[in-house]
Amino acid sequence: MRQRYYEAQEFEDLRFYGEVFENSRFVDCNFINCSFEDIKLINSQFIDCKFDKCLILNPKGEENSQIQSVDFMNCKLLGVNWKEVTSNDVFIDPINKIENSFLKYNTFFNMNLRKFDFSDNDIIESLFTECELGESKFKNCKLEKTEFLKSDLRKSDFRDAIGYEVDITSCKITGAKFSFPEAINLLNVLGVKID
Q1: 52, 70 in Cβ contact below 8 A?
Q2: How far is residue 103 from each of residues 31, 82, 155, measured CA to CA in Å?
Q3: d(Cα 170, Cα 41) in Å, to the nearest integer?
Q4: Range 140-145, long-range pairs (CB < 8 A, 24+ positions)
Q5: Residues 172, 191 contacting (CB under 8 angstroms)
Q6: Greater pLDDT, 11 or 88
Q7: I need a labelling partner for 45 at 20 to 30 A (CA). Which of 11, 95, 152, 181 fits?
Q8: 162 or 3, higher pLDDT
């Protein structure tokens, strides 16, 4: 099947619900105030695209589908399993940046997000597991019920972040920065009670 190719185009105020994007390639495109709900990507790619004021809800990806070097600004990202929409190539960064956005029920599994800046975003009830997050920044993030398991958090910055649940028995945290009193929650996994 022939691939549809879009480059350097702007899409605004579009609504997609349950749509299937098949054999589509978007390169350096801007999506403004668009909604992508329960979409499926089949052999489709979003490369160097920008999403501003967009809603992305429960996307599914299969058969050579991926996002690569994408920017999210002022977006709502709900129910995103990033492993389904990213490449297995460890040298390709799926996300270039996320700014002033709300993430809920997101799953980051086995991803290289080293030195990534999540600062000032809300990341709620999400999971980072087996991720490379060394020197990443979570400053001023609301991280209610967001878990970090089996991940490398060395030299990461959690100052002024709240609500995180870091499993210090499975994560590497040497040199990571935390703020008091929130840092006391790091001891929860050890069953320590502090009065």
Answers
A1: no
A2: 18, 12, 23
A3: 34
A4: none
A5: no
A6: 11
A7: 152
A8: 162
Backbone torsions φ then ψ of 46, nearest 5 degrees: -120, 110
Q: How far is CA 136 from the centre of its chain?
A: 13
In the three-class reduction of DSSP (H, G, I as helix; E, B as strand; rest coil), residue 133 is classed as coil
Q: Which residues contact 3 (CB under 8 A, 6 or more apart)?
A: 23, 24, 25, 43
Q: Report the C-alpha dihedral over residues 78, 81, 86, 89, rounded to 10 degrees.
A: 140
What's the confidence (pLDDT) of residue 1?
57
What is residue 56's predicted lDDT score, i.e. its pLDDT? 96
Q: Which residues pair with 47 in a beta bridge?
A: 27, 68
DSSP-derived 3-state class of residue 2? coil
How many other CB atoms are there within 10 angstroms of residue 78's CB atom? 17
Structure tokens at 90: 């460890």
At 144, the pLDDT band (50, 70, 90 cuts) reads very high
- β-partners of residue 162 are 142
